[in-house]
Amino acid sequence: MDSKGSKQLYNKLLLIYTFILVCAISVLVIYFYTSMKNRFLERNINYTEMMSESAATYLRDTAETAEYIHEDLYKSDMELQDALHYIADEPWEYQKYRLDTFSEGRISEYKGIEKFFQDAFHANSSLVHITLYSYQRNEITEYTRDGRTYRREGDEDFRKMLEDNDLAGEDSFSYLKEIRNPATMQMEGCMILGFENKRFETIQQYYSWPELIIYNDAGTVVFASSNRHDISAVMEAEEGGMLEEVLEAHVEHRQDGQYHVVGYLEKRQAARVPVSIVVMILTVGVFVMILGETIVRYHLQKLANRLNRILNGMMQVMAGDLTARIPAEKYGDELDVISRYFNEMCINLDEHIKKRYLAEIEQKDAEIAALQSQINPHFLYNTLEAIRMKAICNGDREVGKMLYSMAVTFRAQIKEADVITLAQELHYSEKYLELFKLRYQNQFQSVVECPEEYLQTPIIKFVLQPIIENYFVHGIRMKEEDNFIRIYVEKEEDCCRIVVEDNGRGMSEEEIRKKNAELDHDIMKKQGSIGMSNVNRRLKAIYGSSCGIHIEARPEGGLRVILRFKPEEGNRENIEEGEAGREESDDSGR
After folding, report:
1. Nearest one of 402, 462, 475, 392 to 434, comparing CA atoms
2. 62 HSE (CA, 13 A, CB side)
3. pLDDT tens, 505-541?
4. Do 560 and 552 touch, CB atoms closer than 8 A?
5. DSSP states of 460-475 as a string?
6. Which member of 106, 165, 333, 368 has the lowest number of beta carbons within 10 Å of its beta carbon?
């Protein structure tokens, strides 16, 4: 079959769903990317604040350490006096002071300035050097963590550095603490405590994205993670309150004493999403796209297959095959409704065609019978009646009775309308049974029962005669005398049932099952008797597929044949016409 139509629909729906899927996933990818940018922006700004706070905390800790060392110096009189003499005295005078103090004080350990500084280095790991400067003698002495001491004369640059309070170096930043003589309150010198600035690098690397600048009031850079900005421009921007505009960044500024902490995050880098995250988002988007496309293709293919089945069924019907059926797969959608209606249409159309076909066949048979029958029916009735009267006159009443029953049956078959009353059909059946009673004398009993309210029920004629004949051909037990056949009528919902039951030879369960299958599917075999199949087909053709013949086994033995038909009020005109025709024929016959 050409499935071009379904392919076109499949391609259109696939294009539409793919476009919708691409748009939806693109929106989701953009949404997640934007969300990640905002998250990284928020995180990096928080990192900037935390980095600036960590750097300022380190500055506060070192300032407190410097203050603690300075205060601790004044707590020990021996160490303070040693420091004052070291600053004010010449070297030989200082050594003499130490010896005199040691000998006069008779102490086991002399605690001088070197011991004090050494303890300070041990107690504070970030302390890298301590410098003593004598104002009076202009002499500088530097102590380092490794225990070395360097003494030199102060130069102009050093004095300028003190005046400007510019105590930052390449590897350290310092705090200046004045040393006064408690006796005279005169400033004898100062102590410069230097702390390492490598800690700032560690802080900046920990937070990665933000940049960090540490500088003092004099404009000397203590630490700068990036050299892209001139420190003078930074200071001017800070004074003018325009740090964010100059640096083009999110800025977090703090000041602790003479030192300034500037943490900033460049705006062009602030919301940058790592390449790995971007690749992950795109990969997930592509995966979802492939998965969604696969699901869409799968469902569209199922839809196309269902449409193809519908088209195939239509093509079969167009080719004349009314047995075509489309599976209704119970999806509960419109295609299932179409499939069910299509199947019902095929069933109804097939039944309608069968009815029309049978009607045409019956009409042609009637026309042929009418053409072939050249004998006047009244001549046959009168001849049978003459023979019957002769037999009665000769004293042979049984032959007369048989001739009468035969004449009634023959007249009903020739003259009655196609639709008669149930009373008429049962009357003809009784006459037909009388023929067999004369043939099989004292071998069977017959009973015909019908409630009075059903006697005028319309029914097509001669539906019982083939069933009765079938019993006498196949069912009666010739060697027994207790045979019986019973015919009775009963109501069943919207149908009437005529039940013909007997105690004859019956059939096996398999034979009953096969025969019912043939009757249900309206199959008429050429072999054997076709009387029952003919009646079944007539009942289904006139009253619908729910009617017809059904066979059951009697528990006591024999068979029960059930004929179902639907009373039709519209057939009463045919019944009345049939009765009028019968009366007319009787009059003419007489």
Report:
1. 402
2. 27
3. 989 999 999 999 988 887 776 555 577 888 888 888 8
4. yes
5. ESSSSHHHHHHIIIII
6. 106
